[in-house]
Write a structure and sequence with these properties.
The protein has about 230 residues and is of the alpha+beta class. The protein contains five helices and eight strands, in the order ααββββββββααα. Helix 1 packs antiparallel against helix 2 and helix 4 packs antiparallel against helix 5. It starts with a helix and ends with a helix.
Length: about 230
């Protein structure tokens, strides 16, 4: 398929052919004017194409000189409706607007910073703690910092940024032993503590787990003395 520049060149050639065949001066003037008009437009297009090629080549050369750095550290804060991610990078605000790109899915974000001090920075965060609204999520470049705002689909606090972080913390939390009513005279009290543990926040769980551990140690020490 011919480009616009090629089409103009063919038009100019045909008009020149018609100009050679024209006898009346008025027709010659009209054809000459149209030829000059097309020649001017074609020159502008060729200049624009050359500029685009030069810019693309320069960008590619710059990208080739950069090496990728994966970001692992970031800060975060939240409201019921928004989770904010803070990434600190010196001089990031001096980059052109197109050098910072962030793509969102319902459970992830992918942030890239291109050409900052000959480095390409990459921050992928997958398996977010809950779904986000990709249309309302955005990012802003501030002085030495990028702030990514994740719009929560459901208004509630997140315990962590990602599900992986949540599972790791949950795995470290000691679990309460199962207690049967027939084997424990204090079953009602223990069932109440178990329910408080399951429904409580992190601080409550730590307190109950500590109390349970201390209680078990006292029982073991008492048994040893009786023997």
């Amino acid at each position: 398929m011919a480009t616009k520049t090629e089409e103009m060149r063919l038009d100019i050639e045909e008009l020149n052919s018609l100009l050679k065949q024209a006898n009346r001066q008025h027709n010659k003037d009209v054809l000459t004017l149209e030829i000059r008009k097309l020649q001017t437009e074609m020159a502008k297009l060729e200049q624009k194409d050359t500029s685009v090629k030069t810019t693309t080549t320069s960008s590619l050369n710059t990208a080739q000189r950069c090496y990728e750095v994966k970001l692992n550290n970031y800060g975060w804060d939240q409201t019921n409706t928004t989770m904010k991610i803070y990434i600190t990078l010196n001089d990031v605000h001096q980059l052109p607007k197109e050098a910072v790109v962030c793509n969102f899915t319902e459970k992830s974000l992918d942030l890239r910073i291109l050409g900052l001090n000959n480095k390409n920075y990459h921050l992928p965060i997958n398996n977010l703690c809950a779904e986000i609204d990709t249309e309302k999520s955005n990012f802003k470049v501030k002085t030495d910092m990028i702030v990514v705002s994740l719009a929560k689909k459901v208004a509630k606090d997140w315990s962590h940024v990602t599900l992986v972080e949540k599972r790791i913390k949950d795995a470290k939390t000691p679990s309460m032993p199962e207690l049967g009513e027939d084997n424990d005279p204090n079953a009602s009290l223990m069932n109440l503590m178990k329910k408080m543990y399951q429904d409580g926040d992190d601080e409550m769980k730590k307190t109950i787990a500590k109390a349970w551990t201390e209680s078990q140690e006292k029982q073991r020490n008492s048994t040893t003395l009786d023997m």
